[in-house]
Design goal:
The complex is a heterodimer. Chain A is mainly alpha-helical. Chain A is 52% helix and 0% strand. The longest helix of chain A has 42 residues, at 27-68. Chain A is elongated and about 110 Å long. In chain A, 7% of the residues are buried. By secondary structure, chain B is mainly alpha-helical. Chain B folds into two domains: 1-102; 104-170, Arc Repressor Mutant, subunit A, CATH 1.10.10. Chain B is 72% helix and 0% strand. Chain B contains eight helices and no strands. In chain B, helix 1 runs antiparallel to helix 2 and helix 1 crosses helix 6. Chain B is globular, with a radius of gyration of 17 Å. Chain B starts with a helix and ends with a helix. The chains are: A mainly alpha, B mainly alpha. At the A-B interface, helix 1 and helix 2 of A face helix 1, helix 2, helix 4, helix 5 and helix 6 of B.
Chain lengths: 113, 170
């Protein structure tokens, strides 16, 4: 039963079907080729396995290389941004030390940055 | 060989020309790729990796197997083009081969050229309905979409194809 309602298109497709039928390989030749192909299947499987192994090894190497570049203790890592210099103050050491009475060791740097 | 296997071969033999036409459509007219897809499909069926469960007609089931297999081979061919695995064999480029083009008459060539410009689903549904004389419901079964979706692809594809063929010189 045909469902299409366009006879012009139907005729065009049927002409294409006749042309394709003329070049179709024989069924038994296709079947024989399929069976030969079945025998050759393990080789393709092995090559597929080799390809998969290469991909897995490449990923593993990439992960190792990336991890090598990372510091061991991530908690000790200080983020250094390109604008850090804006926070640098003259004599900023004074802010981090406790002065001791009687022992004046502080030397001031009066130069402007 | 068992009686069941012989019966299966007989049914495949009967549908072989239609299956080859469908394989050609699934492989964009590339004869080598179509033969490859057909051989792989027959192999799947004969060694039991694809089993007919009787839910659909044998023809729509066979066409589904061919379509699925051709899609797998297409994916593999794409992968081969990206990976340097030349030892895996020649890669079909997904274009009609010159031998098939020569064998087709001028009108058929124009039709396939116009079909190539349509989206894959539309092309598949039009092929199944006009070339294989399937109903839209059967075409939906083969392509794995709902009947409504297949009907939409059919109507849109038909309108686009008519327009494209009208542009061509007669």
């Amino acid at each position: 039963m045909t469902e299409h309602d366009d006879h012009d298109l139907g005729d065009r497709f049927h002409a294409l079907r006749r042309d394709d039928a003329a070049i179709a390989p024989a069924f038994h030749a296709t079947l024989a080729a399929a069976r030969t192909r079945g025998g050759a299947q393990p080789r393709r499987g092995a090559l597929g396995f080799i390809a998969a192994a290469i991909v897995v090894a490449s990923v593993a190497i990439a992960v190792l290389v990336i991890r090598r570049g990372l510091p061991n203790d991530l908690a000790a890592v200080r983020l250094k941004t390109p604008t850090d210099f804006l926070l640098a103050l003259p004599n900023e050491d004074l802010l981090r030390t406790v002065p001791q009475l009687g022992r004046v060791t502080i030397t001031f740097d009066w130069r402007t940055p | 060989m068992s009686a069941e296997a012989l019966q299966l071969e007989r049914e495949l033999d009967q549908l072989h020309p239609a299956a080859f036409g469908w394989a050609l459509a699934c492989c964009a007219g590339d004869r080598a790729a179509a033969e490859d897809a057909l051989q792989a499909s027959y192999l799947k069926i004969l060694d039991g990796r694809a089993r007919f469960d009787g839910r659909a007609s044998f023809r729509t089931w066979l066409f589904s197997v061919v379509r699925y297999t051709a899609a797998g081979l297409r994916r593999r061919a794409t992968l081969r083009r990206w990976l340097p695995l030349a030892l895996l064999g020649a890669t079909p480029d997904g274009r009609p081969d010159p031998a098939t083009e020569v064998a087709r008459a001028d009108g058929a060539r124009r039709l396939t050229a116009a079909l190539e410009t349509l989206p894959r689903r539309q092309r598949e549904v039009l092929h199944l309905v006009f070339y294989q004389d399937l109903t839209i419901a059967e075409a939906a079964e083969v392509t794995g979409v709902s009947v409504g979706t297949a009907r939409t692809h059919y109507e849109r594809g038909k309108a686009a194809l008519r327009k494209l063929l009208k542009k061509e010189p007669e």
